[in-house]
Design a protein that fits this description.
The protein is mainly alpha-helical. The protein contains 5 helices and 2 strands. Helix content is 51%, strand content 5%. β1 and β2 form a beta hairpin.
């Protein structure tokens, strides 16, 4: 396991989300943004979406980004921008969207 998710760094996680993620994923994790719709992003509020994601996968995506079928990076790499302890907070933050 990569890291135990924690909201201990909730303020940092929310700041990272607002600066790095909300443009595409939305402030509420719904993916209901122009870019989110274009990229067909999942709704992190959906319990089924949450159940299908492991904490390790969330950390991997944050660190390594996401490429499309053509190999083009469609989500940036954040390994060098978000410290490991804040990535744990980001996992917990993503989990907090579940309705």
């Amino acid at each position: 396991m990569c890291c135990a998710p924690t909201l201990a760094n909730a303020a940092e996680a929310q700041e990272h989300w607002t600066k790095q993620c909300a443009k595409c994923h939305g402030p509420d994790g719904s993916g209901n943004t122009m870019m989110g719709k274009k990229l067909k992003l999942q709704n992190y509020q959906d319990p089924a979406v949450q159940a299908a994601m492991t904490d390790e996968k969330i950390a991997q995506v944050i660190k390594e980004g996401v490429k499309n079928e053509a190999g083009k990076l469609v989500m940036p790499v954040f390994a060098d921008k978000i410290p490991e302890e804040d990535i744990r907070g980001m996992i917990a933050f993503v989990r907090s969207f579940k309705r």
